[in-house]
Amino acid sequence: MPSIETTNNRRQRHRKKWYKFEPTEISAWIRVPFFIVCVLTWLIGCIALGVGIWAEVQSARLRPTTTAGKTNSQIANWASGPAIILIVMGLMGFIMGFLGCVGALRENLCMLYTFLVSAAIILILQIAAPILAYVLSQEATNLANSAIRSSITDYRSNADLEQLINYVQTTLKCCGGADYNDWQYNIYFNCTSPGPESCGVPYSCCINYTISGSINSQCGYGARKLTPIQARLRIYTNGCTDSIKAFIRNNLYWFVGIGFGLCLLQLTVLILCGKLIQEIKAVKADYEQYYNDTGAWPAENPDT
Description:
By secondary structure, the protein is an all-alpha fold. It contains nine helices and two strands, in the order ααααααββααα.
């Protein structure tokens, strides 16, 4: 019956000078691309976080002044919404990049596992978000219309808000939220108003709002007194909410392509992270096996 090699015999065999310890190596083709992606994620997160904080501070100027002298929560949410999104995304990018970079450099499995799980959750949410947006499209439309009408109510109470609305309407070539009749919610453009703007719309709703390079602020006067056919000759009658939806539909292939590319990139990063974790665990297993065989770590053994 063949003899069974004891632990001591194995240790003596490993102590021989001809024995060379060669642990599994972590591939640079895995570590370096993963590290570069994490550094870029961290930098983008820092930039987004800084821009978001700046935008949030600037948007605070829209909050104090309303027709009643009080803060309108819908205006505040509408104005600061993009800033909050930037802050959250920037903070997520900063944390994710930090976990990936330090985890890859220090071969820290805890940080890499945290990165892997967080990135997987983000990927799942990105896939689910368009589906939810499509299913709840009517609720999102109603919410957008409500926010726009709220801002229309206080159109003249804040110069920054007025400029913002004018910019949106001239850029998207739209008027109001659901349609141009939303301007009835403003006391100056309401048909019961005694002023010259009664039953009108701002100049930013007009198709041609300039004369010799100057803004014609009176081009929208009385526009809502006209029939819909006559109004279409002077102003944009479609609402800004519909314009945004039309823009998304007209560029749907671009949005789908960009979304698919981002998901594919994230999936590649997840695979790299998983492979990196696997190789780090293999290296640690080699060291632990060496210790079990020799009773010492490679750096402590003078014969290795």
